[in-house]
Amino acid sequence: MNELPAGYRAVVQQVEVLQEQERRFRRMAGLLWDTGEPLNRLVRDAIRGFGFEADLTEAGATYDVSARLTGGRLLIEVTGIEGHLTRASKKIAQVLNLWQTEAKPGDRVAIALNAYREQPLAARQPLAPLTPDALALLTGLGAIVFTTGDLFKLWRLSLTDMDRARQRSNGLLSATAGSVQLT
Q: What CATH class does 29-179 carry?
């Protein structure tokens, strides 16, 4: 190693930094296809990345992530599914239960939905992430629904414009009930 040029050590350090950055970028792309506990952690981590507090709930809770935004708490049920959310989904009953048991005045209940998760993001754009009757039920319950694809785009925006990403994520607390686009 002593025979290598003086800049060798700096190059090795740069490579290590770039590899770590690549790993973080690739991990966050899981917002586009993951489900279950890995998706819950990614939603939490994206919100933390915007500079807000966010935690996973305990096993068996009626929602997955609790986030403390500037104006209040966002209680998020996270789900990854192959198609779209329908009125028969147990997620709608969980939203009602969440309002009945956990939510306090000023809280916002949300579903972070990774619909059509096996399709490329561009192919999902024309597809509705939930049926009209499911949307009507969730709107009636005062809940908001956003896609984890939109959350990924917001995370990507945060890499270049953190203030705008924070503003958009904080806007979830005051968004009109129903489907919300983050970008």
A: alpha beta
